[in-house]
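Board notes (copied after class):
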Amino acid sequence: MAGDDLFGWSGDEGLEPDCAYFFALMPKGCTQQQIGERRESATRALRVGRSTPVDDHRLHLSLCTPKTLKRLRAPFEESLLRAGAEVKAPAFGLRLDGFDTFNGGFGQPCLVLRSDATSSVHVQALKDGLGKALFNHGFGWDGGTLAPHVTLLYADDIASPGDPVEAVEWHVDEFVLVRSHVGKHQHDIIGRWPLH
């Protein structure tokens, strides 16, 4: 059904098949290069045999994903784009200064570069603003606390390197909306908004 009834769109219209969507911070230029260098040094230090590194152009810090759908005010991607455009937030400095290990997608262990406590507050504020905008446009959202990080690699068995990390200082001046093609290692940036 076309969906533009009294209750809005059902949520399937404008949704690309086999895709997931999320808002994120994506490093550029020197920041992307420095994160890539930390990934390479960690890989050497760990001597990981079977690992899957995250390519430089796919490095990101996830902010917020649309959750349980309510009735949308527009087709799916358009609703996400409208939500992103509604967010107003300042630019901020983000310090990535430690390795950690998480269970990533499908429970596979991953090595991440995490942010410090001070700059994590700014990431959380941006995520909360995105969540409210998503709600305003018919989406549910996860209101929990973020553990801001950039995933560096996946491996079957992994331990966090014990050596100190040379910090990456990231001037965050925009956020993006990503369409991820599940299982294909492909990310399309379909929306981009400045932070002032």
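Comment from the instructor: The chain has one domain: 30-194. The beta strands are 19-25, 51-53, 61-64, 92-103, 109-115, 149-155, 168-172, 174-181, 186-194.
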